[in-house]
Design a protein that fits this description.
The protein has 68 residues and is of the alpha+beta class. It has one domain: Alpha-Beta Plaits, CATH 3.30.70.20. It is built from two helices and four strands. A hairpin with a 5-residue loop joins strand 2 and strand 3. Bound molecules: iron/sulfur cluster.
Amino acid sequence: MADRIRVNPITCEAHGMCAELLPEMITLDDWGYPIVDGRPVPRELVEHARRAVKSCPKFALLIEDKRD
Ligand code: SF4
């Protein structure tokens, strides 16, 4: 089991909150849109990732439960 972060590019409005809350896995491009690290979320960052997901004002950030 591996949780990965995904951004819905349709609903994301480049608020940048996610990159502030999870800089280890999310950076912003020149326009403020998130670039997500596609690797599985390390165990020690799961809580931070969940907080970033909850904080997105557009509900554009998701954690997907994917099996490799
Ligand atoms: S917080 Fe949400 S709306 Fe803002 S950049 Fe991140 S995914 Fe996009």
